[in-house]
Design goal:
This protein has 238 residues and is an alpha/beta fold. The chain has a single domain (2-236), classed as Alpha-Beta Barrel (TIM Barrel). The protein is built from 8 helices and 9 strands. The chain has helices spanning 23-36, 59-71, 104-113, 132-150, 165-174, 201-209, 213-228, 231-236, and strands spanning 2-7, 9-10, 20-21, 48-55, 76-79, 116-119, 155-157, 178-180, 191-194. The strands form 3 sheets. It has a 5-stranded parallel sheet. It has a two-stranded parallel ribbon with strand order 2-3. The longest helix is centred in the middle third of the chain and has 19 residues, at 132-150.
């Protein structure tokens, strides 16, 4: 079984959302994963966990990348193409403060070291709410734009973890080999286990093992609740 251990923003500054981690907390997780799991990349012919980052926040370069280098661990960063090098105006800021996204120079430096990159679409819209033409644009144009600068791009992470049978068909037609966001039914519906500020090593291990079953069920509910706090963003990104 392959699944993603999914992070978003790594920062020492408190955030008014659940989708972030302190750098020290992140390092504790990475050390645990290195010592207790098989860390793989999409396409490796073995089971394990893929360490991923959604959105392409600049904090990945500032705080996560040095830790990944320290432990010699590769990961996959999913980029929102329209916001590379820009502030995150795709999101709804509760207190007016915006966070910048990775620049192309930072992306190229990380790629040269061994970090892989995938698509998080062009504009981080809920694909299940778009017309077929708009879905095709979000998928194909993001892949084309990234491949112009980075070479082959074979992975996509579905914004808001929202997908459908039609979206998956379009992902396949666009030429992606792996899609993150589902229940593990196929390579285009690989499961993402989101790791948030509320997590610790014990809950991380529960996400990996999917047991004890009741605690894992509770954790999946918790992930969904935190994810639903993005509803204001989803309403303006249809």
């Amino acid at each position: 079984m392959v699944k993603a251990i999914q992070f978003h923003r790594i920062t020492p500054k408190f955030q008014f959302c659940g989708t972030w981690n302190y750098p020290g907390q992140f390092e504790t997780f990475i050390e645990f994963l290195k010592n207790n799991t098989k860390i793989v990349l999409p396409g490796d012919e073995q089971n394990g966990v893929v360490i991923t980052f959604d959105d392409g926040d600049k904090s990945i370069y500032r705080y996560a990348f040095p830790i990944l280098k320290k432990y010699g661990i590769r990961a996959v960063v999913f980029l929102i193409v329209d916001y590379i090098g820009k502030d995150d105006y795709w999101d709804m800021a509760l207190i007016g403060r915006r966070s910048p996204h990775l620049s192309w120079d930072e992306i190229h430096e990380m790629k040269e070291w061994g970090i892989e990159f995938g698509s998080h679409t062009m504009s981080h819209r809920n694909l299940t709410k778009l017309s077929a033409d708009k879905v095709e644009y979000e998928l194909r144009e993001s892949k084309r734009s990234l491949e112009q600068r980075l070479g082959d791009v074979n992975c996509i992470s579905y914004p808001f973890n929202r997908t459908s049978s039609e979206v998956v068909r379009q992902v396949q037609r666009a030429g992606y080999g792996f899609g993150f966001g589902g229940q593990g039914q196929s390579d285009l519906l690989l499961k993402k286990e989101a790791v948030y500020i509320t997590d610790n090593v014990r809950s991380l291990n529960t996400k990996i093992l999917e047991k004890p079953k009741f605690i894992y069920w509770y954790d999946r509910v918790k992930q969904q609740v935190i994810n639903y706090f993005t509803i204001t963003t989803m309403l303006v990104k249809r």
